[in-house]
Design brief:
Blueprint: E1 6-13, E2 20-26, E3 31-37, H1 42-49, H2 51-54, E4 63-66, H3 70-79, E5 84-87, H4 89-110, H5 118-122, H6 130-137, H7 141-146, H8 154-157
Parallel strand pairs: 1-4, 4-5
Antiparallel strand pairs: 1-2, 2-3
Helix pairs in contact: 1-3
Length: 165
């Protein structure tokens, strides 16, 4: 048998609607390990109880990459005792982009220059034209602080985030 140390877990819709299936993937061997219905904390219990999914040793798993689901975090903490979470970059970027957009929308109400600038805030700063850069630099401090389009947030994406105590 093989020993699995790093897994990824995500859920997807199994068909149109709200029926979800969780997928457990071995990141090192790049293969599907286990699937199970639902997306709750018990998803990890089912994985941990299935010796075929992880070569008889859930304790050997030291890295789990997952989305921001509190249920997944709880399940991993309870059923994979030696793991360390790493949150998927996609989900973190999505949250940051939503926060930047919320600030931009709020500022657009008091500053008309913010209207029609959504894509400028999401664009990689190195790809901005001189005119686009000037438009963003001309904005106020609050919006510049919220802007995370490649300057301050990405270094955090490569760091492991500790699981809740």
């Amino acid at each position: 048998m093989f020993e699995i140390q790093a897994i990824g877990v995500d859920e997807t819709s199994s068909r149109h609607g709200h029926d979800h299936i969780a997928l457990f993937v071995d990141f090192r061997k790049k293969r599907l390990l286990f699937t199970t219905p639902s997306k709750d904390a018990q998803t990890f219990a089912r994985f941990a109880r299935d010796p075929q999914a992880h070569s008889d040793s859930a304790e050997a798993i030291t890295e789990v990459r997952l989305d921001l689901s509190p249920a997944f975090q709880k399940g991993a903490a309870e059923h994979l005792p030696n793991d360390q979470f790493t949150f998927e970059r996609f989900h973190l970027v999505k949250l940051v982009n939503e926060a930047v957009d919320a600030v931009r929308k709020g500022e657009a109400q008091s500053q008309p220059s913010f209207k029609k600038t959504r894509w400028l805030w999401l664009k990689n700063p190195s790809k901005l034209t001189a005119k686009q850069s000037k438009k963003i630099r001309g904005s106020n401090q609050r919006a510049n602080h919220a802007d995370s389009s490649g300057l301050s947030v990405p270094p955090y994406f490569s760091r492991n985030l500790r699981k809740p105590a």
